[in-house]
Amino acid sequence: MANSASGMAVNDECKRKFLELKSKRSYRFIVFKIEEKIQQVVIDKLGDTNDSYDDLIASLPANECRYAVYDFDFTTDENCQKSKIFFISCSKDRFRRELDGVQVELQATDPSEMSFDIVKGRAY
């Protein structure tokens, strides 16, 4: 288990599933939560490869902190297919650094700060 500077451990399954998202594209997104009882970051939900950004948003509870990684596919103005992995959080900590390969970080304090248009704009 990886330990963050804040003393919060990151469950090894978090990193394993992230590597599957990154290398095998096994998931569209992963939602993580802090399990207070065991003081660990754990997986809350795995998004199927055919899930949308709206599915990610719908899986985030309104009043609880969550972290997520999202595999965003898009087409550039030059008509090239691209993909970027976003890390979305409500607070910054070492957990983000444990996920080597995240290309864009997006911090949101409410759903309006992580609209699809914002994600698309940050991908370019």
TrEMBL record:
Span of domain ADF-H: 7-124
PROSITE patterns in alphabetical order: ADF_H (PS51263)
Listed GO biological process terms: actin filament depolymerization
Domain of life from the UniProt record: Eukaryota
UniProt xrefs under InterPro entries: ADF-H, ADF-H/Gelsolin-like_dom_sf, ADF/Cofilin
Name the UniProt record assigns to this protein: Actin-binding, cofilin/tropomyosin type
Species assigned in the record: Corchorus olitorius
Gene3D superfamilies the UniProt entry points to: Severin
A GO MF label: actin binding
Similarity remark: Belongs to the actin-binding proteins ADF family.
Cellular-component GO terms for this entry: actin cytoskeleton
Coiled-coil ranges from the UniProt annotation: none
Pfam families named in the record: Cofilin_ADF (PF00241)
SUPFAM superfamilies: Actin depolymerizing proteins
SMART domains, per database record: ADF
Keyword Zinc applies: no
UniProt entry keywords in alphabetical sequence: Actin-binding
